[in-house]
Amino acid sequence: MENFSQKVLIVDDEKANRKILKELLQDEATIIFAKNGEQAVELARKHMPDLILLDVIMPDRSGFEVIEDIKNDKQTMNISVIFVTGLANSDDEERGFDLGGCDYIYKPFKANIVIARVMMHLELIKQRKMLNEIAHIDALTGISNRRKMDIVLTDELAANKRDKNKLAVALIDVDYFKPYNDNYGHGAGDAALKKIATSFREVLQRPRDFAARYGGEEFLIILPNSSIEGTELIISNIVQALADKEIKHEHSKASDLLTISIGAVLVGDEQATTPAEVLLQADKLLYQAKENGRNQLVINDFEI
Ligand SMILES: [Mg+2]
């Protein structure tokens, strides 16, 4: 995982408090400020900080009201919140934890306690993010796994309703992969799957283009804002990128080289559908590609 600075949003109505917290934490994280509750919610959405230090007593809205907004918003609900308060009151403290706060820092600030608490939470947040990333990556090929695919496909189908163009979903199967493994060994089979994933990486350049390992030798590609022609071009570039790797396959009936079959479906913006329906149609088109002799693309519009 790349190394980047974590972001902390400091929310406090008193300038002196914001200044002290900034001085204590500016070497550990990128600091953003909000001076009231309204600004806090707005800046949390805009900057997506890793951690929020949230003052409890503020003139416009209390920290307890602010955290409810943050925890009720799907976008910001996972941001960690530490309450900052002068009240050493256990009822208040309990309420803060009930509302989803993860810790308390008390005023007047004790420098080493503030730093230790914040650093501990930033470290936990960093580790949680890393685990989350690992949980979404296919260990063999390094591209996304099926779990991540489920999330992306659901999100992209929702986004597709807002786009003018279509969403392309392509299911890809390696031709004669069993005879490949049987004859060249599983090590060679794994290496071939890695090279296929590399071909996807070489060709897919737009930020939302997505590739995942779907199962054993099956892959899935999602191309938002696409068309039949655009999808055909991308797929032919992938096929070419794979052919350039010249993976010899003497036990294939489709070619001398390792090849892929592809079933692709284009979902229009007006077509409300589920990931399962889209995958089912892509799978039928993939089946046709195999029936037609493999090493080819069968592409069609999604049919209601
Ligand atoms: Mg205050």
How far apart lie the N and C ends? Answer: 41 Å
Q: What average pLDDT do the residues reach?
A: 94
What is the N-to-C order of secondary-structure elements (H for helix, E for strand)?
EHEHEHEHEHHEHHEEHEHE
Number of domains: 2
CATH class of the largest domain, named: Alpha Beta
What portion of residues belong to β-strands?
Answer: 15-25%
Q: Strands across the major sheet, in which order? A: 2-1-3-4-5
Give an account of the 3D structure:
The chain is an alpha/beta fold. The chain folds into two domains: 7-134, Rossmann fold, CATH 3.40.50; 146-301, Alpha-Beta Plaits. Helices cover 46% and strands 20% of the residues. It is built from ten helices and ten strands. It has helices spanning 15-25, 37-47, 63-72, 90-98, 111-134, 146-160, 177-184, 186-203, 228-243, 275-291, and strands at 7-11, 30-34, 51-55, 80-85, 103-106, 166-174, 210-213, 218-226, 260-267, 297-301. The strands form two sheets. Strands 2-1-3-4-5 form a five-stranded parallel β-sheet, with helices on both faces. Strands 7-8-6-9-10 form a five-stranded mixed β-sheet, with helices on both faces. Strand 9 (260-267), helix 10 and strand 10 (297-301) form a beta-alpha-beta unit. The protein is elongated. The two termini are 41 Å apart. The mean pLDDT is 94. Bound molecules: magnesium ion (MG). Residues 12-14, 55, 57-58 line the site of magnesium ion.
